[in-house]
Amino acid sequence: xxxxxxxxxxxxxxxxxxxxxxxxxxxxxxxxxxxxxxxxxxxxxxxxxxxxxxxxxxxxxxxxxxxxxxxxxxxxxxxxxxxxxxxxxxxxxxxxxxxxxxxxxxxxxxxxxxxxxxxxxxxxxxxxxxxxxxxxxxxxxxxxxxxxxxxxxxxxxxxxxxxxxxxxxxxxxxxxxxxxxxxxxxxxxxxxxxxxxxxxxxxxxxxxxxxxxxxxxxxxxxxxxxxxxxxxxxxxxxxxxxxxxxxxxxxxxxxxxxxxxxxxxxxxxxxxxxxxxxxxxxxxxxxxxxxxxxxxxxxxxxxxxxxxxxxx
Length: 312
Ligand SMILES: NC(=O)c1ccc[n+]([C@@H]2O[C@H](COP(=O)([O-])OP(=O)(O)OC[C@H]3O[C@@H](n4cnc5c(N)ncnc54)[C@H](OP(=O)(O)O)[C@@H]3O)[C@@H](O)[C@H]2O)c1
Known about the structure:
Blueprint: E1 3-5, E2 12-14, E3 18-19, H1 34-46, E4 51-53, H2 62-74, E5 80-85, H3 92-106, E6 111-116, H4 127-139, E7 143-149, H5 153-161, E8 168-174, H6 186-193, E9 196-200, H7 231-251, H8 255-261, E10 269-271, H9 278-285, H10 294-304
Parallel strand pairs: 3-4, 4-5, 5-6, 6-7, 7-8, 8-9, 9-10
Antiparallel strand pairs: 1-2
Helix pairs in contact: 1-2, 1-9, 3-4, 7-8, 7-10
NADP nicotinamide-adenine-dinucleotide phosphate binds at residues 19-22, 28-29, 53, 117, 149-150, 172, 200-206, 209, 211, 218, 256, 272-276, 280, 283-284.
């Protein structure tokens, strides 16, 4: 496994993490079993994956409880635990309360990376209140590092202004071959400022694994309405999958591994694929330890340029 430092936090994380949103009951499909997810985390950790991402929002805290089981199996010192405060809990006192509840559900004394899940879109709680609460948790030793999620550059700049002793070490945002919006502003800013980009939905929620197509679409609650899986978009994505499959075959990798390795091409990006079972976790861990060649990256880029996806 390869490791990188999360921002300037001193926390060393594997270049591929593990997303635990899947541990939210059956929202991600009837095949989700808590035991399998615990085993998936254990297997990922055996292969060197140490960054585990969860949130109080995932299954109303259930995901954190499942992660707690994995922590007990693997050993606290072998994991970097990242969780998030809900975007509706951003008042000063609510942040403190949410952190206490996450600590309890996770069964730990300290959260390694505590992230603001998304900026408050409805109540307009001033970010300074949220960040002051985050800094208090940091000073009290209840969290080791502060992160944010779904923050645009304007949000990042403001959030950073309200911190004096701690800094923002990461921004967790959607990033995959098919959804590259962050390349315009967020990614260059984070690179420049040494803020690690934690890439969520690195497999485009399964669209980049090769197993979905026109006659086989995911039907779970989370993905049913996802525009990636419209007939029109799937037809386009199929053209990309053919190229990924060819490269995967030549390199003895899988389509999913090629798709996520592409995210590692320039550094400062840590994908956190969600996995439902040990086999997926094992495959995802195999994204690290090698790199696509310049020629392969060009081949991928030339087909990506021609894709016409409609998210309207
Ligand atoms: N901060 C945020 O707002 C935010 C938003 C979204 C996600 N996240 C985090 O990011 C993590 C990952 O994102 P995501 O879950 O949206 O999408 P993702 O990682 O792109 O896709 C996950 C899904 O892909 C399939 N899969 C995973 N590994 C596979 C493999 N090796 N082979 C074949 N299929 C595989 C699984 O579903 P099937 O087997 O059913 O196809 C799995 O549920 C989440 O768990 C969560 O921790 C954060």
